[in-house]
Specification:
Helix content: 25-40%
Largest sheet: 5 strands, mixed
Shape: globular
CATH superfamily: Uracil-DNA glycosylase-like domain
Structural class: alpha/beta
Order of helices and strands: EHHEHEHEEH
Strand content: 15-25%
CATH architecture: 3-Layer(aba) Sandwich
Number of helices: 5
Number of strands: 5
CATH topology: Uracil-DNA Glycosylase, subunit E
Number of domains: 1
Strand order of the largest sheet: 2-1-3-5-4
């Protein structure tokens, strides 16, 4: 784990219905979070949602802006986002990750009152934590491919000073003598 705590706290919008049933983040089969996390170099292999606790070994954490489960994020009210942003700020001040990565720029804009925010690093900090907005990995977000999302997530990994995770079976992994 990152020295002194989390390197990156990923923050989804809210639990989908599948996540609410299973208790695992980004559990819906069409969600691209887990493949993108691997392709971007955060994990040495693609984790399954039920392996989310393994993220801690890589200095990563996961939470949501809003706790209420819905079928779609557009079912949430502006008030829920704003309150979620307030609660998330408290959580970040307590946990002190190096970076907070909000997965969904629209959620970030609403929760933090930043209507012109774009994907990437934000000017806002929470205490010493830098903030980054990432594309939403939902299958409903057709503007981003798995590959273009992985490129953006890799930019975040590099900003967090995390090396690319490799496995023994990875051809890019350095060979041991």
């Amino acid at each position: 784990m990152a020295e002194g705590g989390l390197a990156v706290l990923f923050c989804g919008i809210n639990p989908g219905l599948m996540t609410a049933v299973t208790g695992h983040h980004f559990a819906r089969p069409g969600n691209r979070f887990w493949p993108v996390l691997h392709l971007s170099g955060f994990t040495p292999r693609q984790l399954r949602p039920d392996e989310q606790d393994e993220l801690l070994a890589y200095g990563l954490g996961i939470t949501n802006v809003v706790a209420r489960p819905t079928a779609r994020a557009d079912e949430l009210s502006r008030e829920e986002y704003v309150e979620g942003g307030r609660l998330l700020t408290e959580k970040v001040l307590r946990l002190k990750p190096r970076l907070l990565a909000v997965v969904g720029v629209t959620a970030y804009r609403t929760a933090f009152g930043e209507p012109k925010a774009v994907i990437g690093p934000q000017e806002r900090t929470i205490g010493t934590t830098r903030v980054w907005a990432l594309p939403n990995p939902s299958g409903l977000n057709a503007h981003w491919t798995t590959e273009t999302m992985a490129e953006e997530y890799a930019r975040l990994r590099e900003a967090a000073d995390l090396p690319r995770a490799t496995s023994e079976s990875d051809p890019e992994s350095p060979t041991q003598p």
